[in-house]
Write a structure and sequence with these properties.
By secondary structure, the protein is α+β, with helices and mostly antiparallel strands. Helices cover about 45% and strands about 20% of the residues. The chain has a three-stranded mixed sheet. The chain is elongated. The mean pLDDT is about 85.
Length: about 110
Amino acid sequence: AGADLLAASARQARVMTELADSLHEQLTLALQPRKLVLRDDSAHHAGHAGAKDGAHFAVHIVSPQFAGVRTLERHRMVYAAAATLMAGRIHALQITALTPEETGDLS
């Protein structure tokens, strides 16, 4: 039973890594960020109703494409970029979307 649990845990870790890689790729292609950090928060949501429906990620993204765009529209841009994953594999995103100027990165 212990070996089965370890194998299932390893499979789940692989799936989550592949999902994070896919999310990173989609956000990068669509928003061309200067900085993109993903954090898998799925374990923190285990046991609540949405947890069984998909993963939970925190996204910190810095992109020049957010210049002049309000926060709500920035979030819509992130959701649009991740739309194919949001359709079943990802349940929730916690988004921090900033411009390089807002982070002090003027390079």
